[in-house]
């Protein structure tokens, strides 16, 4: 269930896409400026990249950028609106709606968080113990066949059911670990699973920790937007947008302007 949740999550893919684009724009002109992918561990480092104020992190910035798009998508906004006042009010509403979508990711990936609490080695050992226990019961039952009686008959009935159940559990274990391997390769490439083979469920740990960070950042962004959007006139709104972008992450905005001609094409791409 965790594998299916993570692979099918549109919002998670959108966040990965936003992080990749932001990283490429900030690193344009360097050997890291044209990346096609990144390791999921990078998600945990986004809060280490601080803006000029020393408080706002790169993840704050990514969330601010994505909630505008998500809010507009949810509300089916008409971008050709000519009423400035309405547009400013829309901007406030878009951010609120978009923030709800992004902050809902943690609730969307509940099985991912449950899987992160599991230990694959313990799980495998438990299944092996069950199978070994059944084999011991088989030996005991064979000995009691010489004696016969109710116990022997009862255990024969039990073994028929138990052996089928254990076989089913072993099959499901194999399927689950195979799906985890496929998911790891999906996000990390062909070599990803080999590196994590000793800890196959680590992928879920990384995502769980990221979701915890994302929850905190979404709360921060909500408070920031409430404070900064009290006045929704053109002057204050312009100041807010410039304050977040140009003051805190000026290099990103500079790169964004340089790439404005190709931004429409980029926005349609997928991670």
Automatic annotation (TrEMBL):
It comes from the Eukaryota. InterPro entries: FH2_Formin, FH2_Formin_sf, Formin-like_plant. Belongs to the formin-like family. Class-I subfamily. This is Formin-like protein. Residues 1-240 form the FH2 domain. One of its GO terms (biological process) is actin nucleation. It comes from Erythranthe guttata. SUPFAM superfamilies: Formin homology 2 domain (FH2 domain). GO terms for molecular function: actin filament binding. The lineage of its organism: Eukaryota, Viridiplantae, Streptophyta, Embryophyta, Tracheophyta.
């Amino acid at each position: 269930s965790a594998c299916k949740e993570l692979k099918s999550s549109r919002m998670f893919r959108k966040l990965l896409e936003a992080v990749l684009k932001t990283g490429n724009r900030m690193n344009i002109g360097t050997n890291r400026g044209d990346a096609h992918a990144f390791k999921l561990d990078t998600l945990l480092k986004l809060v280490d990249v601080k803006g000029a104020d020393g408080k706002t992190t790169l993840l704050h910035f990514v969330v601010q950028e994505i909630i505008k798009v998500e809010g507009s998508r949810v509300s089916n906004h008409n971008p050709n609106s000519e009423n400035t006042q309405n547009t400013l009010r829309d901007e406030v509403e878009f951010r609120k709606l978009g923030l709800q979508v992004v902050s809902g990711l943690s609730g969307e990936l509940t099985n991912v968080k449950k899987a992160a609490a599991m230990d694959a080695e313990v799980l495998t050992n438990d299944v092996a113990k069950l199978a070994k226990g059944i084999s011991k019961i088989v030996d005991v039952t064979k000995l009691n066949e010489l004696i016969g009686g109710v116990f022997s008959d009862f255990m024969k009935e039990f073994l028929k059911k138990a052996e089928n159940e254990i076989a089913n559990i072993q099959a499901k274990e194999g399927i689950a670990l195979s799906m985890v391997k496929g998911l790891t390769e999906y996000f990390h490439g062909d070599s990803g699973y080999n590196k994590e083979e000793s800890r196959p469920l680590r992928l879920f740990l990384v995502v769980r920790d990221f979701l915890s960070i994302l929850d905190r950042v979404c709360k921060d962004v909500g408070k920031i937007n409430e404070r900064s959007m009290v006045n929704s006139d053109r002057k204050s709104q312009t100041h807010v947008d410039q304050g977040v972008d140009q003051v805190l992450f000026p290099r990103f905005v500079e790169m964004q302007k340089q790439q404005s001609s190709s931004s429409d094409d980029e926005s349609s791409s997928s991670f």
